[in-house]
């Protein structure tokens, strides 16, 4: 017995010998199968028909046709490196679809990730420059001139002149060196040879008064008295400014009186802290700067005589604009020809004077004056010393 295969309605049916035997018994009662197209596709490989054929086994081979998949949701665009893997479905195999869930960061920066790595930070890392200025809280104190000078000195970028030599002149009243503050002791005035006094130290002394021409009178008298008086504030000698209250013995240096908070008045009087009125006063003086011409009245003839008697000296003596360098000398045989009814002409006399230039209208120069001897008579020599020109020497037999 052999198996028989026949085709009916595009289906291959296999009959075995056992089945053919059964069918032969019921051949007369079974009508032929209707030839009609299949309305429904068999869901499984094995089917049983209920058209009076209960014992018929039918083997149906699956059709090799492409199945149309249902429409899917719109695809999400991913970079090429993150494309979803696709698996083709086979007829009798399970269809598997792998979907990669993208990160949120990758979606926002998808355009930046597509760029080459070398251009990712272009213009952001090495070209972008920002300045952040931090201002500290609180009040800002600008540097003073001394701090700026010290900073420039450390840098060494500026050229500065040599420092001015220290002024070792001392005031005979307050014993402080150099010129004082304008609103304080003020400048130094020459009292005598190597003797100096501050302007306000002398002006506010009890005995001293000022003339209309600006001369200070009785300065030497105040100095002699101050050598015996002790200051109530610093307990040093030289105090000359006393309290004007009757029978008050308090006396101070001018600088010590300011420190002790004494009260000064416009009529050149002073009251100590024990006797000054409380509060402010209409006639109180709080500013001590003196810009007018003030000088110490002194006997210049006696001062010059003291210089001649001292002989050699290490200092410079100046009267007005005339600076003495050497006084000179006269021998007995020269006395007849080297003098007049008003003056002496010692040989070797030398002095210099700063006066207006003969070449420029608004410039001063130095005139060096000296006396020499020629043919038993005095010879007066003037040398004009001016920067940028050769020295000009003028001579004559008379001073005029």
Q: Beta fraction of the residues? A: 15-25%
What is the typical, i.e. mean, pLDDT?
A: 75
Read across the widest sheet, the strand sequence of neighbours is 14-15-16-17-18-19
CATH superfamily of the domain at 186-294: Zinc/RING finger domain, C3HC4 (zinc finger)
Largest sheet: 6 strands, antiparallel
Q: What would you call the shape?
A: flat
In whole angstroms, how far apart are the ends?
A: 177 Å
Give the CATH level 1 class of the domain at 186-294: Alpha Beta
Using the coordinates shown, work out and report the CATH topology of the domain at 186-294.
Answer: Herpes Virus-1
Q: What's the total number of strands? A: 19
Q: Return the CATH architecture of the domain at 186-294.
A: 2-Layer Sandwich
Q: Which stretches are low in confidence, meaning pLDDT under 50 for 5 or more residues running?
A: 1-19, 21-31, 36-40, 42-47, 81-91, 105-112
Radius of gyration: 63 Å
What is the H/E order? EEHEEHHHEEHEEHEEHEEEHEEEEEE
Secondary structure class reads: alpha+beta
Helix content: 10-25%
**Count of helix runs:** 8
Give an account of the 3D structure.
Among the domains are: 109 residues, Herpes Virus-1; 80 residues, Double Stranded RNA Binding Domain, CATH 3.30.160. The N and C termini lie far apart (177 Å). By secondary structure, the chain is of the alpha+beta class. The strands form 7 sheets. The protein has a 6-stranded antiparallel sheet with strand order 14-15-16-17-18-19, with no helix packed on it. A 3-stranded mixed sheet has the order 7-8-13. Strand 5 and strand 6 form a beta hairpin.
């Amino acid at each position: 017995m052999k198996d028989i295969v026949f085709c009916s309605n595009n289906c291959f049916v296999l009959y075995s010998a056992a089945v053919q035997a059964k069918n032969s018994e019921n051949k007369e009662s079974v009508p032929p199968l209707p030839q009609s197209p299949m309305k429904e596709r068999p869901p499984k490989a094995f089917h049983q028909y209920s058209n009076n054929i209960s014992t018929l086994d039918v083997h149906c081979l699956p059709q090799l046709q492409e199945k149309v998949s249902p429409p899917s949701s719109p695809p999400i665009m991913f970079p090429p490196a993150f494309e979803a893997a696709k698996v083709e479905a086979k007829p009798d195999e399970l269809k598997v679809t792998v979907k990669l869930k993208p990160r949120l960061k990758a979606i926002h920066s998808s355009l930046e990730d597509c760029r080459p790595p070398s251009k990712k930070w272009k213009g952001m890392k090495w070209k972008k420059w920002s300045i952040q200025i931090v201002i500290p809280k609180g009040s800002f104190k600008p540097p003073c001139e001394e701090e700026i000078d010290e900073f420039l000195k450390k840098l060494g970028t500026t050229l500065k002149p040599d420092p001015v030599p220290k002024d070792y002149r001392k005031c005979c009243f307050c014993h402080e060196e150099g010129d004082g503050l304008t609103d304080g002791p003020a400048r130094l005035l020459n009292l005598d040879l190597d003797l100096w006094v501050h302007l306000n130290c002398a002006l506010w002394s009890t005995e001293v008064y000022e003339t209309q021409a600006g001369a200070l009178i009785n300065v030497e008298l105040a100095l002699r008295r101050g050598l015996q008086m002790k200051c109530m504030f610093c307990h040093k000698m030289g105090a000359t400014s006393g309290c004007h209250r009757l029978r008050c013995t308090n006396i101070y240096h001018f600088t010590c009186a300011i420190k002790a908070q004494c009260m000064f008045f416009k009529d050149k009087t002073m009251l100590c802290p024990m006797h000054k009125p409380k509060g402010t006063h209409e006639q109180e003086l709080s500013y001590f700067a003196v810009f007018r011409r003030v000088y110490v009245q002194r006997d210049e003839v006696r001062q010059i005589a003291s210089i001649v008697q001292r002989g050699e000296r290490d200092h410079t003596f100046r009267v007005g604009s005339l600076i003495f360098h050497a006084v000179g000398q006269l021998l007995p045989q020269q006395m007849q020809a080297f003098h007049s009814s008003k003056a002496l002409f010692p040989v070797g006399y030398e002095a210099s004077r700063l006066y207006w230039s003969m070449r420029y209208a608004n410039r001063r120069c130095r005139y060096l004056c000296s006396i020499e001897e020629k043919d038993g008579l005095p010879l007066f020599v003037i040398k004009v010393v001016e920067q940028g020109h050769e020295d000009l020497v003028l001579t004559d037999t008379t001073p005029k």
